[in-house]
Amino acid sequence: MRSAFLKSAALAVAVNAALWIAASLIGLVPGLGESTFFGGVLFASVGATAAAAIVASRFTAAGAQKRWAGISLAILLLSFTSPLALGAGNLPISLFNPGDTTYNEFRGGIGIAYAILHFTSYVAVQRFIGKQIPE
Questions:
Q1: Residue 16 in contact with residue 41, Cβ under 8 Å?
Q2: pLDDT for 66-86, tens place per residue?
C-alpha cells in the first residue's frame, strides 16, 4: 500500500500542479507568487491520497474492491459541495480569515479549480490505491 500511496500522491501532485499553473496563467486563479493557494493545492493532493490509503487499508476482505468503488465515488460526489459553495459565494475564500476579500474576483475560478482537483485526486487514488484492494 505504501508504494501505491507514493505513486498516487505523485500523480495527484503532478496533475494538480500542472492544472493550477495553467489556470493561473489564464487568470482563473491567483498567480503562483501571489498567494498560498498553490502550496495548499499540493498539500491537499498529498493529504487526499494519504487519507484514501489509510481508509483503503481497511478494505481487506474478498469483494472489497466493489464496495470501495461505491464508497469512494460517493465521497467524491459529496466533496464537490465545498468547491461549488465557494464558487457560489456561500463559503469564504479563506477559512482562516473569513473577512478577507482579496481574492474575491477569483472565487468562481478557484471553485472550479478545486472541483477539478478533487476529481484528479480521485482518479489518482483509483489508479493506484484502489487496485490494491482485493476483488
A1: yes
A2: 889 899 999 999 999 999 999
Q: Which whole-number Å values give the CA distances from 18 to 15, 69, 95, 113, in the listed order?
A: 5, 26, 25, 11
Nearest-Å Rg of the Cα atoms of the chain is 16
User: pLDDT tens for residues 6-24?
Assistant: 999 999 999 999 999 999 9
CB 87 within 8 A of CB 110: yes
Distances (CA, A) of 6 to 12, 44, 47, 53, 82: 10, 14, 11, 10, 26
CA trace torsion 15, 18, 22, 24 (10° rounding): 110
